[in-house]
Amino acid sequence: MALKSWGEFVKSVFKKTSEPQSLHHIAKAHGLLRRRFSRVDLPESAPPCLPRIQFNEVNLPVVNLSVGGACTKDPFDHVLPLLGQELNLELLWPSGREVLAARVVGISKHVNRHFEFLSLSPAASLVLAKLVHLGSIGKTLKPTAEDPSDEVRLNVSELWVSPTGENLKFHSLGEQTATLVTDQGEWHFPKFRLPTFGTEGRPADLQELAELIVLLSNIARPSLKIRQLRMTLENLSEPLLKAEGHG
């Protein structure tokens, strides 16, 4: 960028406004902020199969997360709103837990804390990477136009597809509520029972159930069928947690 144009840019950024702007706001407004890691949303219902974050044994509800960090709610300021401070958080998931170093990198809506993870074990990284992968697929799913003739011919009452071929089909007849096709294979959702994978019908384990919940939670403007399916999976997570010996 030429010196003159750069000077004009700086002036435009720091021109006087009615209220001061944070560096985060300035960077975002001018397209200078880029995430190194993809983030996915976690449902507010916080089913027990999903990761949790604690600070000094206080639970901080997770809004979204990535392999590189997380955003949590902290309405009572358990974590002081000081940018740059480093602290230890505890990351918990059904099959493990670990203390990790983190840095406060953002504060938003007065109650949200944005953390950058400074240390994360390979085991925890793998758990989060799988969640983020499925959640990222959910973000790409869009509904197709409804065609009554397709519902009869294909036994599909609702169809969501992504540009890369993943799709979620809701069935109008039979014992299967829905079928999900991803790059990993095909999931089947029987009514009120655990999802099953592939032609062999292997039931989902707790980690896979969490990944499917995160996928459904990241679909923009979800239909009633998607919300109901997610609620069913969340209700199934607690008995599965106990069955696998984590409850």
Spell the H/E element sequence.
HHEEEEEEEEHEHEEEEEEHH
Beta-strand content bin: 25-35%
* Mean model confidence by pLDDT: 85
Structure classification: alpha+beta
| Strand elements, count | 15
Outline of this structure?
With 247 residues, the protein is of the alpha+beta class.
Can you put this structure into words, describing what you see?
By secondary structure, the protein is α+β, with helices and mostly antiparallel strands. The chain has a domain at 139-243. It contains 6 helices and 15 strands. It has helices at residues 3-13, 23-29, 122-140, 148-154, 206-217, 224-243, and strands at residues 40-41, 52-55, 58-60, 62-65, 69-73, 86-93, 96-108, 112-117, 142-143, 156-161, 167-171, 176-182, 185-190, 196-197, 202-203. An 8-stranded antiparallel β-sheet has the order 1-4-5-8-7-6-2-3. Strands 9-10-11-12-13-14-15 form a 7-stranded antiparallel β-sheet. Strand 7 (96-108) and strand 8 form a beta hairpin. Helix 3 runs parallel beside helix 5 and helix 5 (206-217) packs antiparallel against helix 6. The longest helix is centred in the last third of the chain and has 20 residues, at 224-243. It is globular, with a radius of gyration of 21 Å. It starts with a helix and ends with a helix. Residues 9-24 and 26-35 have low confidence and may be disordered.
Topology, pairings included?
Blueprint: H1 3-13, H2 23-29, E1 40-41, E2 52-55, E3 58-60, E4 62-65, E5 69-73, E6 86-93, E7 96-108, E8 112-117, H3 122-140, E9 142-143, H4 148-154, E10 156-161, E11 167-171, E12 176-182, E13 185-190, E14 196-197, E15 202-203, H5 206-217, H6 224-243
Antiparallel strand pairs: 1-4, 2-3, 2-6, 4-5, 5-8, 6-7, 7-8, 9-10, 10-11, 11-12, 12-13, 13-14, 14-15
Helix pairs in contact: 3-5, 5-6
